[in-house]
Amino acid sequence: MPGTVLLLAASPVGRGCLVDAASVLPVLAAVAPPVLSGTGTANVVELADPLEPQAVLTRLRAAATAPGPLTMFVTGQLQLDRRQRLPHLALARTTPATVRYTAFPWRWFADELRLRPPGSTTVFVDLHADPDAWEFLAGRPLTAGPTAELYGRVAPPPSRRTVGRPTYMRAVATLLRSGHRPPLGRLHEQALARLSGEEADRPGAADLVLAPGRSWAGQPWPPAPEFTTVTAPPRTPAAPPFPPAPPAAAHVPAPSAVVPVQAVPVPAVTVPAPARAERPGGPPAADPHEEITAAVRDGRHEDALALAARREREALRTYGQGAEQVLHWMEVRADLAMLAGDAERSCRGWLALAATRLDAGQAPGAPEVESAVDRAHHQWGRIGDPERARELGSELARLRQHVPGRREGALDHVRRQLRQLQTQP
User: Fold this and answer.
1) Whole-prediction pTM value?
2) Distance between CA atoms of 286 and 57, rounded to whole angstroms?
């Protein structure tokens, strides 16, 4: 099966540039596609200094849904948006004041890679952080999703009036140009060895090194709310070794996620599914997420939706209306409808999820509520039937009055689109 390779190099134009990201693309492009991907044949997609987050998202989404192994090479700089204080990959038009609108949210990588099977996705990164992002990353993990293997480094801000070099990525490309693709861990170590030789005299802090299972800033990677999101399957607590005291009401914390409005919202991230439950005297129980993922890969979207609907009904019987286990499967169904190309059903699913969260007492500004409305808004814009769009648009407009989201003008956008729809038969 052919593989897919995505080469992405991005950095701002002008004084805000911290790294000459695009300079590494010719070296990567000189590597034979099968060597880049580790497969017999491969399709290579190159993005050099893209202008718009949505352009990056479109290419990333296409690569993530392609069959076969996916290898990504990402070079650029990390900056924090001033409101949410979350890392973004800066693009050509990004400035410190416009990160939220012109940069690519880092979490979107994990969002789009969430349904890929384990072992099929590798991401190499060579990133330079601005001072705020560098401070933020101390003690926090940078991930590309639970099923993706992430290798690379994050370099501290370069000295004033200097532009950093993507020496790690250049080392990876140079090693691969030999025509030999060593095991990924070995390739990473060899690139770091070359990097340490080239930057031995570089002043400032040491790089933050990324590799599966490696510690971050000297500590085991802790769970960070900024990187766990709304579709994380709620974990079932392990049984205590002794009979417990009279139980209190269990509370499953809702992980956080934030997705901008109007930039194409993306489906939420999944973190590793709970460990398979052991059956007494039998093999481990099958993970429903793996079964659903297999159905999606095979194009059996209705089967995947039916499996998720069944799980939602089971969770409803077990945990009751509004429980996080139920909300999780509602999210999965809305995601699956989007992957099946059924924008109407996906929009209805996200609207229902947002309403359920609000009815459960969650605040209109809660990240999970905003996330659901953002996704509903995005899917609504893809509905081709004017009558259905008018129907759901009215519901979306009512919801937007209570959940305006993080970007100004979301409600006005819905109202303008509704006025246009009124003129269509």
Assistant:
1) 0.54
2) 32
